Amino acid sequence: MKPASFEYLRPASLEEALQYLADLGEDAKIIAGGQSLIPVLNMRLSTPKYLIDIGRVEGLSYIREEDGYLAIGALTRHVELEQSPLVAKHCPLLLEAVKWIGHAQIRQRGTVGGSIAHADPSAELPCVLAALRGEIVIAHADGEETLAAEEFFLTYLLTSLQPDQMIKEVRFPVISNAAGYAFTEVARRHGDFALVEVAAVVELNENQEIALARLAAGGANPVPCVLESVEDFLIGKAADNSLLEEAGEMASESVDPDGDLHGSASYRRSLVKTLTKRALQTAIQRAGGISR
Ligand SMILES: Cc1cc2nc3c(=O)[nH]c(=O)nc-3n(C[C@H](O)[C@H](O)[C@H](O)COP(=O)(O)OP(=O)(O)OC[C@H]3O[C@@H](n4cnc5c(N)ncnc54)[C@H](O)[C@@H]3O)c2cc1C
């Protein structure tokens, strides 16, 4: 199918893009990499009167280390995360996760801002952002605001972004060198969206007990979901295989997945259990714990 007709606008600056959004409101839609929006337009699930192509907006493609965060401009492509020494050094969890996104062609075009704004609950970047308690910098014609990931993702493909707002930057907290991390997922075929995915970060104390745990699952709830009860349970515990078993069980009980064509709710729940165990095991090993 072809999209419904629209007027194509191509701002060169952030200010110009924000002014278009302020003037056109709900009649306009931003396009960045187009990897999610073009299919939506082609299927006429969305029929905006105006398409604002931000692809040539100056100054929105960058990766910087700032104040304990990796600050990533909205137009940064997935492939740029894969190739960034800063990401490899300060947020290897993000590097591990981004490789699961679609195929190389999609990662060449898709952007960080687009992935966060699209808010697919099975997408990798929202899951990592949720696990790390990252932030989203939102710009509008009158200024900027910063939201925590948990305030931003509302439900399937829905965020708190207003029609006159756009994502300017996404902030992923830096992971300590002492931490172990892991991102793991199951998809039906290579390159497909995850059925379920789990992101984990673990730090151990000198007694090999868990001192910090960050855990989130995607594809298991309408939004990427922080497994907070499991994180709390892990703190102070010695990392061993029975702990992993209990943590996996708790994780599967704390999610409420929907079933669909690709997998039943109970299958997704059992994946949460298995992937939580797997992610925690790898993260703990990388933090220097559990014998291999
Ligand atoms: C075959 C295929 C497989 C894929 N597999 C995966 C996968 O496994 N995992 C995964 O995470 N993704 C996957 N994707 C999607 C891909 O990651 C997209 O790149 C991403 O979801 C959206 O980024 P984009 O830049 O292409 O956004 P676009 O498609 O241009 O836009 C997506 C949405 O975000 C909005 N938007 C874009 N930028 C901004 C901004 N700065 N501020 C506010 N709103 C904005 C748009 O208005 C639109 O609603 C796949 C895509 C395809 C085609």
Automatic annotation (TrEMBL):
For whether the record's keyword set contains Flavoprotein, the answer is yes
Checking Pfam families in the record gives:
CO_deh_flav_C, FAD_binding_5
Gene Ontology MF terms: FAD binding; oxidoreductase activity
Which keywords label this protein? FAD, Flavoprotein, Oxidoreductase
Q: Does the keyword Flavoprotein apply?
A: yes
Domain FAD-binding PCMH-type intervals: 1-177
Q: Where are the transmembrane segments?
A: none
PANTHER family xrefs: XANTHINE DEHYDROGENASE SUBUNIT C-RELATED
UniProt-recorded name of the protein? Xanthine dehydrogenase family protein subunit M
